[in-house]
Amino acid sequence: MAERILVAYDRSPLAIEALELVFEKFPDATVIALYVIEVPAGQWAQLVGPELQIPVTERAQEYADDVLESARETASKYGRSLETTVATGEPDHRIVATAEEEAVDLIVVGSHGQEGISRVLLGTVAENVVRRSPAPVLVIR
């Protein structure tokens, strides 16, 4: 049974469903919601690294805080506590890096996020997380 679970959270319908499923199916797990402030690859291609945290605008940080506040509200509805974190960069890379840093047992992602750009069966971010993940990945479709 997973004891530490990372949920990639962007307030999309599938991210909400992922978080709710984790609260229902893993009642004793520590849950971490991660929001990634995406920075287009062209703006930071020269600055690659697992510890990279690019400065972001105050507006982007406020939006991230708002998104994670909605995750905390969902946790409250389930009577659960929730750790939250914000990362900056390419979502798939940051999800995998955070999973490694937090030593999670499971990563849960929606198959398609807020952006709506997707592959035929699996979203690009979800597919890349599955390929690179140090832990099992549960993809919500």
In short:
This protein is of the alpha/beta class and 141 residues long.
| Low-pLDDT segments | 116-121
Work out the count of structural domains: 1
Mean pLDDT rating: 87
Query: Could you give the distance between the termini?
Result: 22 Å
What spatial order of strands do you see in the largest sheet?
3-2-1-4-5
Helix/strand-derived class?
A: alpha/beta
Query: What is the name of the CATH architecture?
Result: 3-Layer(aba) Sandwich
Shape descriptor: globular
Helix content: 40-55%
The share of residues in extended strands comes to: 15-25%
Protein name: Universal stress protein
Organism: Natrinema soli
Family: Belongs to the universal stress protein A family.
InterPro entries: Rossmann-like_a/b/a_fold, Universal_stress_UspA, UspA
Descriptive account of the structure:
This protein is of the alpha/beta class and 141 residues long. It is built from five helices and five strands, in the order βαβααβαβαβ. The protein has a five-stranded parallel β-sheet, sandwiched between helices. Helix 4 packs parallel to helix 5. The two termini are 22 Å apart.
